[in-house]
Amino acid sequence: MARGPDSMPQWAILVVLTTMGTAVTAATNPGLLTRISQKGLDYACQKGVAMLQKELEKIKIPDFSGNFKIQHLGKGYYSFYSMTILGFQLPSPQIRLEPQLSQWQV
Chief location of this protein (predicted)? Predict the structure, then answer.
């Protein structure tokens, strides 16, 4: 099997990741420290709402119909078909951390 020029960058990335993984596991106290700011949460919320809007545009609402009875007036019939979502808007989407619940310690 011949290797093309595209296989070299993948090989180099694999070597770098293996080297980094070995260096991290060789440390005496491996760990992970992350910090999430409100600005980061706002960005995640903005991207999440945009993704949700795109997904809602793809949803197909199934057709449905039925009948009902109104006392003294008689029977009625309803049928909904080819329904689509034309717009979607959240009033004010927000993500916030609870101060007492957002700390984790070992």
Answer: secreted
